[in-house]
Amino acid sequence: MANELSNLSPRPGERRPRTRVGRVEGAGKGKTAGRGTKGAQARSGYKSKAGFEGGQMPLHRRLPKFGFKNPFSKDFETINIERLAALDAGTVVTAELLKERGLISRIGKHGVKILGRGELGVALHVRVSKLTRSAAEKIVAAGGSTEGDVPGA
Q1: Which of 22, 66, 89, 116 has its CA 20 to 30 A from that of 149?
Q2: CA–CA gap between residue 130 and residue 122 (Å, rounded)
Q3: 96/60 Cα distance (integer angstroms)
Q4: Domain span including residue 111
Q5: Which CA distances in Å does 122 have to 58, 119, 140?
Q6: What is the CATH number of the domain that holds 113?
């Protein structure tokens, strides 16, 4: 007899018949059907909570907690003014332009903030969410203008 798909069968002992629980005591899984006695798990409709460890202190409560997440923090992508010197004079600088030119990798949830490190030799019109006071002063000193939130201005 050839080994053909039509003649294949499982090897002896490979398959085991399904255990039928709750079908007479002599079968070994009668009465309580292998669920033990009483308690929530013996009842129908039992569901345990995710992470429940049988009353033992769950892992997420055994591990130490650390850190602090400020609920009032703002998410700005920052860029120093020296990086803006690469732009042409008279350019209107926006968050979208900075991302398009590759000067920033992303636009933060609350926008872009320009910091005052470095020098600026070209006149630019800067329209971003936030600027530091020193950055705003350097932009204006170079002959440009600013639109955005400047602290103490």
Answers
A1: 89
A2: 20
A3: 42
A4: 77-149
A5: 61, 10, 10
A6: 3.100.10.10
